[in-house]
Specification:
6 helices, 19 strands, alpha+beta, globular, 17% helix, 337 residues, five-stranded antiparallel β-sheet
Length: 337
């Protein structure tokens, strides 16, 4: 597996957060369109046997990491009740902290506004961004329900049934990093780039047919392979920091040295599968959210991802898989257990 880093630039609002496992699902549909269903089937061979052809991260601000799921004291924050609210707001860290143990990260912690100041983005014309200093704004978009039987709004009784959907408007000049672990012998860099371009042009996630979820993407960095990480100087790593939701269940861990928040993914099919018999909705999947710190037993393997491929999630397309893998950074966790 080779690690690649892409620069993703949002061009429109999004109705679905840019999460690695969701983006992987849409990439599978894109591969089917750009190449063939036979190509996709071949790529997914061995996916549930720790042989993924591709593992995608969440998209994060270029050069920064979101806060790991750790107690504040394990990140080096002072245990002062008066400072708790201030500490809680410091959710971003420059990637340079990866060279130091986790208990020293607090020194470099930034709020969202401080992180944006560090990026030195131009002042946008939208006054809300100037005041709030936000990575993205969340706004409710109004919709009407449509009765497919009658072709009118409302239910069978004709009752007007509006609803709202949350949309995410990124800072207009933000650039996001997308980290990909890729088996280049099975799927080339050029094929991956074409796949991501297809998604960015046609739109990602909900409301893509209405113009949301569009982005530009280009290969930013193709680092030389480094055992276990693209970050040099990581001091004696003994844990992994996950960069996407993953499924660590039944793998070999030091349970008392693992920190994570659970996430239930209520997935649904996209593309032409929404019209197939069986319905669009998949079975729920329990995952560890992005930012988990997991301590594997034994020596860290050289692969830059962890987790497992998940199947059995769909009654519509039985061969469907879900990305339960996540790219990782090796980190040093200082805890006595």
């Amino acid at each position: 597996m080779e690690r690649l880093i892409f620069t993703l630039t949002p061009k429109t609002a999004f109705a679905t957060p840019l999460a690695g496992d969701t983006l992987f699902g849409q990439a599978c549909w894109a591969i089917r369109h750009c190449f063939s269903e036979a190509k996709l089937t071949a790529l997914l061979a061995g996916y549930t046997e720790n042989k993924p052809f591709m593992v995608l991260s969440d998209a994060m601000p270029q050069g920064f990491l979101s806060r790991p799921t750790l107690p504040s004291e394990l990140l080096g924050f002072e245990q002062d009740a008066k400072q708790r609210k201030i500490q809680k707001a410091k959710k971003w860290f420059p990637e340079s902290v990866l060279a130091t143990p986790l208990n020293q990260w607090a020194k470099a912690a930034l709020t969202e506004g401080e992180m944006l100041d560090t990026l030195k983005l131009p002042e946008p014309s939208n006054a809300n961004y100037k005041v709030l200093k936000r990575l993205y704004l969340t706004k409710a978009q109004d919709h009407n329900s449509l009765n497919r039987k009658t072709g009118t709004t409302g239910g069978d009784e004709g009752v007007f049934a509006p609803f709202q959907r949350q949309t995410y408007w990124y800072h207009p000049d933000i650039q996001l990093s997308l980290i990909v672990e890729l088996d280049t012998e099975r799927f080339s860099v050029a094929e991956l780039t074409e796949t991501l371009h297809w998604i960015g042009f046609n739109g990602y996630g909900k409301e893509a047919s209405c113009g949301l979820g569009k982005f530009a993407i280009e290969l930013a960095v193709r680092p030389e392979p480094v055992e276990g990480s693209t970050v040099e100087g990581t001091a004696q790593p003994n844990a992994w920091l996950t960069l996407a939701p993953c499924a660590p269940q039944n793998l070999s861990w030091h349970a008392l040295r693992c920190y994570y928040q659970t996430l239930t993914r209520f997935g649904r099919h996209g593309d032409s599968a929404v019209h197939q018999r069986g319905g669009a909705f998949k079975n729920p999947v329990l995952m560890a959210a992005t930012g988990a710190v997991l301590s594997p037993k034994g020596e860290n393997p050289s692969q830059g991802f962890t987790g497992q491929g998940i199947t059995g999630v769909s009654k519509t397309i039985e061969a469907t898989v879900h990305q339960g893998y996540a790219p990782v950074y090796p980190v040093r966790l200082e805890v006595t257990v």
